[in-house]
Specification:
seven-stranded mixed beta sheet, 2 domains, globular, alpha/beta, two-stranded antiparallel ribbon, homodimer, DNA-binding
Chain lengths: 222, 222
DNA sequence: GGTGTATCGAGAAAAAAGTATCGATACCGT
DNA sequence: ACGGTATCGATACTTTTTTCTCGATACACC
């Protein structure tokens, strides 16, 4: 990567896994559990126990031998270490199918996200209310937004232009679902969320697996 | 990772980047370009030229010094190396907001994906048609699906149960949007697509950046 | 045709991520 | 109380990924 392997002192790969531990831990809490071991979590998430423990090593927390970690403390440590406790406000731009899906998504609460405004330019969308958020016209987006983060779900074609507008409005972090690379001032933090990447990996894995199977078969009868 | 760093002989990280090169190259083609250098692509995608060239090194292709790569050949090599040329059929289960968004998504064609059936259990959705695909009742999903891959966009609560049903129906690859870890036979390939991870990373980056800024300021006036 | 330069591509080095080892510690059953 | 054992956590090791270095090659300009 050009820059940015780490967040503070925590590797990005660890942050990613921590993000998946969180809902798993919350689920355990709901089921009445209060203690979890690295092996428990690893089994649950198809990982290795060593890796889970290593990840926890970046947090300010200590487990107890023979027992494990207190789930409450774990969650607190994760929220503290990564600031998922402070609720951060975001706006969403582009209320197509994906934007609507995100506006209705319930999992964001885990990470303290609150979408407090939505924008679009299509006349038939402006004025509608999606999950309690009214869709405003993009031109109405003034300079004093009540958010630092923007979720960008517009068409690829308009991605760059809209992104520039967001930066002018004071947005400092963009979660980019458009699939286009945004070229913006360096101080703006961009998180690309290219859904097609996951598909590409899965599809490549599937054909690789299929190829293996064929090779294995041809080895059986030469 | 428990297993699976590579696809064939290509690192997963490379496959991921290749997946982002593809639309960029297609876009260039549309604009009439036929040659691209590693530096060109790198600039366009905010990467390093060396990395682009290394990624290309895994493909069966050679560039020309002082010129670069023929875009047509690049695309062909990528499709050949990762089998994105063969169209693969998929089904989609769970036609909520996200499922609907994916059914309407246009970017899948790049990777040869064709969603040929959709399933749900909600009575008000069964029978409707989304982007040309009729939503069928999940119980109607027989044993002879015309697809190897399934896109899972049901609720977290029903994820595991539905996934098991998919495996019984002969699905060998699952693109899992539910956020839950699926526990399935090892031969089933699972690609987790946890949207919250991207948010977690962005949100952590933002607060880390904010923290840096505060520290920098307090250093100025001690 | 010769010279300069941009680009590739192979191999080495560096950095990062993941995995193993092992002593220390706290619970469990007797 | 005591030995057995599961688990943590520090350190060392291995693998993977990224980055650097540098010679080779092909185009451009003179």
């Amino acid at each position: 990567m050009a820059y940015g392997y780490k967040i503070g002192s925590i590797p990005i790969t660890t942050v990613q896994r921590l993000a998946t531990y969180l809902p798993a831990l919350r689920e355990m809490q709901r089921q009445g559990r209060s203690i979890v071991s690295s092996a428990n979590l690893a089994d649950m998430l198809r990982l290795e126990a060593i890796q889970v423990r290593k990840d926890f090593g970046y947090l300010e927390i200590t487990g107890r031998p023979k027992t494990g970690f207190k789930i409450v403390e774990l969650i607190e440590a994760m929220e503290r270490g990564l600031s998922w406790n402070r609720v951060s406000d975001a706006i969403l731009v582009g209320t197509g199918h994906l934007g609507t899906a995100l506006l209705n998504y319930r999992g964001f609460g885990y990470h303290g996200l609150n979408i407090n405004a939505a924008f679009d330019i299509a006349p038939d969308r402006v004025g509608t209310v999606i999950n309690g958020v009214e869709v405003q016209h993009l031109d109405a987006m003034g300079g004093s937004l009540d958010a630092a983060m923007a979720i960008l779900t517009v068409s690829p074609e308009s991605a760059q232009a809209v992104a520039e507008k967001l930066v002018q409005a004071g947005i400092t972090g963009i979660w980019n679902f458009t699939g286009r690379t945004l070229l913006l001032p360096e101080q703006v933090i961009i998180q690309d969320q290219d859904i097609a990447i996951g598909l590409a990996v899965l599809s490549a894995k599937l054909t690789a697996r299929a190829r293996e199977a064929i090779e294995a078969e041809s080895t059986l009868r030469p």
